[in-house]
Design goal:
The chain has one domain. It has a four-stranded antiparallel beta sheet with strand order 1-2-4-3, sandwiched between helices. The protein contains five helices and four strands; from the N terminus they run H-H-E-E-H-H-E-E-H. By secondary structure, it is an alpha+beta fold.
């Protein structure tokens, strides 16, 4: 339901992003099956600038220091990563921050922060 793979169609992902994405996996924790999958936890637009990654550092840092960012960094199974996509509708870029979360953490994140 919240999988990043479903949120970002494969034809819109670069080869670099393809290496970072992982298929959902199941693990037994305390006798319970828990599903872990990648979720797009934050995204933002960046205009057409000379070095978009340099300019994107500030919004990424602001997000990481926000309540949501701190929660995601604490609950992510692996270190969250970001990916840049060309956004032809704005002639700029769209950045996605992706985290691998357990199913119960995905539900908490979605109820608290996911925009409808």
């Amino acid at each position: 339901m919240f999988d990043a793979i479903n949120q970002m169609h494969p034809r819109h992902r670069s080869a670099e992003a393809e290496k970072l994405f992982k298929a959902p996996e199941w693990k037994l924790i305390d006798g319970r099956a828990v599903k872990f999958s990648d979720v797009v936890v934050h995204s933002f637009n960046m205009g057409d600038v000379e070095d978009p990654d340099l300019y994107a550092a500030q919004p990424i840092l602001d997000w990481q220091n926000s309540e949501m960012g701190k929660w995601v960094m604490e609950h992510a199974v692996e270190t969250p990563f970001w990916h840049r996509h060309v956004d032809p509708s704005t002639y700029g870029y769209r950045y996605y921050i992706i985290a691998r979360l357990a199913e119960q953490d995905q539900t908490y994140w979605a109820l608290k922060w996911q925009k409808s």
